[in-house]
Amino acid sequence: MKKFSIIFVLAICAILSTNSSATDIKLTVEAGKPVHAMSKDMYGLFFEDINFAADGGLYAEMVWNRSFEFSEGLFSWKPGVLNGADAIFALKKDQDALNGNNPTYVEINITKAGKVTLLTDGFRGMVLNADKNYDFSFYTRSAGDYNGSVLVELLTANGTIASSTTIESITTEWKKYSFKLKSSASDTNACLSLSFNGSGKVAVDMVSLFPEDTWKHQPNGLRADLVQILADMKPAFLRFPGGCIVEGKTLDNAYRWKDTIGDPAERKVNWNRWAGWDNPPQYYQSYGLGFFEYFRQMLPEHFR
Question: Dmax of the chain from CA atoms?
Fold first, then answer.
């Protein structure tokens, strides 16, 4: 290797010495007359989960911190106590968790009934379109003695109810509840509200809201408008999952594809390597957009 380096340096010196007497060097580039055709396979797109490229971007999930796994567990959520109610909101992480990959949940201890709410505006404001359906789901259970119902509402910025549904009673075991909510209004700063009107302890986890019209109408899907922009570019390839995001800040939070497949409720949330740059410190990867979604929806052949 050392011998090669010496020969290379001597060759460069010889070239410079040969051209040292030249006073004019003219280089002409005729861009309109390419000598070699460029392969269409050389043109593609680079994807990396930075600046809300995945969560809050291509991934159509409208709830930020849906599983309460951020270090600031109630980040993007606003607890509320109304109509004379009295309640304590606590983040729990114990043997009663939804699963081992999603260990944190919210327990609400309502000691005096009224109206107790958990509200989120998602990624700094949810966009609702009138007469469009939205797929809502969440996991909940009575932590022993909750005796009330759960009211789910989509609210516009001025408090107008755009859609609602009620779960009359819940069980003592974790159960997933899923509904379609049809919005009666359009708004760019809407929010999702969960209201509890009984007393006792109730647990909540994995709160999710998707537009029904995802790309290719896939569940746990992608935003159709944004993916269409990528499709219109007709890329020959798409690099996924990115560059520095793969290595993480340390090996402990490096990107591992096995964490990005299976039931979204069982995918292990990962701290995002780009947190604290131009993004908020509470910047995580839900892995909702994982390898399964990539192969199902984002291969170049899916764009054609």
Answer: 94
